[in-house]
Amino acid sequence: MTNAIPGAPPTDDAMRTEEQPAARSALSRQRLASAWLFLTPMLAVLAFVAGWPLLQTIWFSFTDASLADLDAARFVGLRNYFEYVDYGDGTGEWFGLFFDAQWWNAVWNTVYYTLVSVSIETVLGLIVALVLNVPFRGRGFVRAAVLIPWAIPTIVSAKMWAWMMNDQFGILNDMLMSVGILSHPIAWTASPETAMWAVIIVDVWKTTPFMALLILAGLQMVPSDVYEAAKIDGVHPVKVFFKVTLPLIRPAILVAVIFRALDALRVFDLIYVLTPNNTETKTMSVFAQENLFQFDQFAYGSAASTLLFLVIAAITLVYIKAARLNLGGGR
Amino acid sequence: MRFGTAAMAVAAIFTLGSSEVSAAELSIVSGSVGADIQELRTQLAEFEAETGHQVDIVEMPASTSDQFGQYRLWLAAGTDDIDIYRVDVIWAPQLANQFVDLRDAMADVIGDHFPSVIESQTVEGRLVAFPMYTDAPALFYRKDLLEKYGRNPPATWEELTETAKVIQDKERAAGSGQIYGFVFQGAPYEGLTCNGLEWVASSGGGQIVSPEGEITINNERAAQALERARGWVRDIAPAGVLAYKEEEARGVWQTGNAVFMRNWPYAYALSNGEDSPVKGKFEVTTLPAEPGSRSAPCLGGWNLAVSKYSKHKKEAIELVRFLSSRKAQKERALTYARLPTIPALYDDPDIAERQPIIAEWADVVEKAVPRPSAPTKRQYNEVSKEFWTAVNETLSGAASAETNLQTLEHRLRRLKRDGWR
Amino acid sequence: MPAFVKRTAFYALVVLIVLFSIFPFYYAILTSFKSGTALFRVDYLPTDFSLANYRDVLVNGVFPLNILNSVIVAFVVVAISLFLAVTAAYALSRIEFRGRGILLLTILAVSMFPQIAVLAGLFELVRLFGLYNSLFSLILAYMIFTLPFTVWVLTTFMRDLPVEIEEAAIVDGAKPMTIVMKVFLPLMWPALVTTGLLAFIAAWNEFLFALTFVSSNDTRTVPVAIALLSGASEQEIPWGTIMAASVVVTVPLIVLVLIFQRKIVSGLTAGGVKG
User: Any idea where the ABC transmembrane type-1 domain is (chain A) (predicted)?
Assistant: First the structure.
């Protein structure tokens, strides 16, 4: 989902109810039973639409499945991941995803795209949040304007920007040329030097509002007496920002960053529409989709999907550990 | 309503053979380059009037590569929502299992068509798609500009480069700031495989993979051909050509902003359209070749296949028969300059008068170079992707042609392993 | 630095932010009113006012049907998600049981699933149940992201409600289902509207599943229809029509977002991001 939205983790603290007297144990048994009754439909649906398909994908990655005849898939072990092929003349070669330069290129593209776009979005989001945190006339209007890119479907924004970045008739080239930044039109989505940047620009435009709103929420929780104290002490505002504000909103930023990053790591639609088939912008999801449905490589594509899942899971775990985020409750 | 249809179907079964009585709802899927959809719709209207069946068009985007991915997916899902697929000449081997064998149904008319086209749609003895029209690209040139600067249509790529450069520079100096020397299809997709193959094959560099399945692409002549093409980008071709498909190239050409264009004959009819700024100002010729080699236009063309999941196979075959008929092919030739697959039509006086390109093209079609879809079987699509990627990266200047071709050879060898599957 | 300069700089920044945010959409609207060769001329201010593109989109094609499909899918998905989520959220937020933390984490993890990871398996599932090219396939598939999200946000919301509100009901011996329906539901309308709206937008915008599971013109949803829009015209790429379609599908969203602005902000940051 492009608009993944984080909620706060319910902590055990907040949910702790009063000690249950013995007389109430029948009641709590009843409540426990109904809890599972309430949860079962939801869990069943999730198992059906998420759990089972995931297992199925993993299973396909161990087979030789072809889209032409999925039912004929046979188990082939780890061959889609790595396999040594002996040519019989004393030479041989390693095959499989682990030895596929294009896969690693896709991994690198994805990581690069995520790092760059999320960094820019964080900085810009912070700036926008700081602006929106200042009371001024027309603030409501500005906040509404900022929300617009977020509400526009990704496909639509990709198309809009593709048109603006058109090499012959695009307004972006026209603008930059009339200001004198460019001397000749750039083919934004086509040239290898700019294709990735084109994608990043659109992503930044679309998701900075999301960042800004999350950070703004963090900012609004900073008690105002902190600022007043600093003002009385005559501390320079820049220093206040780095010494006081930033540490206070750090948790908000860290949470926003992880949710954005998870979203960026699985990017597909933006690239599919804006820079189709371009090696410079081929991400893991695009690589997997291409193998699954465009080439006769369903099993290989499934293996790529499985690895993508593992890569994202690994990055998430490392990040949560490193940032000491508390997502699951407990302290 | 559903009950009604079912009842009719049952009735049809009982009164065996009289199923023509019941009108079927068919659906055909087709890509849309230029006036594709418009031309299909006109002919379908005729078919509907004649037979009482109803035909829906499912429109697809212009990129053949995108279409292929979707079609493969639908067929894999066994969807019965599409009865007839309009398929590219190269797809037959990859989708063969999912299409109906038309050999018997079409037995009486097979002999009318180019044997090579029928051959290209035959997989393991099954005729999986029937020709609608064939295609071979042309070099479009601005007659008025060439005359203005006293130039002849180029026979070699060197001449093309030189002429394009001269005219472009002089025209720009004279105030046409937007004009470019040459536009073609440089986006990473199937069309670039065609363009690349043409450059390479017409320079003695072979056909990527030989008919016997040998990987031949990594050779010096191929590298030279690609280096030459790289020289065009930003010099005589817009930088955006790296993302141009047929329609983008035509967009530049038809607004009068290109001296040369490589494109399919459909652009001939459209460029001569009433409101076209280049109407009457251009001419076509065969693609250039290096001295000692033959011009090597890529064999294209579209065919009609009936899905084996269709619930109306009989009616679908009727439609295929209708759209591939001599009458339909002639109509398309007259209005849209579509190249017929029936050799006799190339001598047709009406066509020669209305679309002179077609009479000229009889030769070109026969000598067109097929892409290596037959030897590489179900892996063609990946072979093609590897090739277009290598060409696109050469054009963009990311690495030299030599390096890219080496990588390409290596990748193709990895794909092939002990034989194409 | 004099206050005047500061103020000017601040407002310049504000103007920059607003321009950056709305210019692309403004330009899309501008383009959508152009036709013919006017399309290929760069204008910064409106010059043309032709409704031809809108006529193409709304009258001549199947696009209205695509909009209807999107609306149906998004509504059904939201309705089912909310229904399942309200009770589940009650269990997760108000009843203590073993394994609750793990369960919550799992649900969060599912909402973060890369879609591509389940695509192959879902495709097999859709094929198996004969749902291919029907809206049911999308309704099913979209549960992957709407359900965990709604459960998560509603759990957060319910958790923050004070204990007292259900105590009276518990003492009266009300059954948990009654408590959810009679006590919580009336309090939860604002949260339901917000969550529902966000889930609606997510379902409305989804592309990959819709591209994969649906094949014909009249079952496509809006994003796929726009991505595949080719137009029967002889123009090269029908930018005018594409922009008109984009405007048509975006305006309702923008209106919704503006109306529910405050709610969305609070939904996005549900319960505060304490970390």
Answer: 107-319
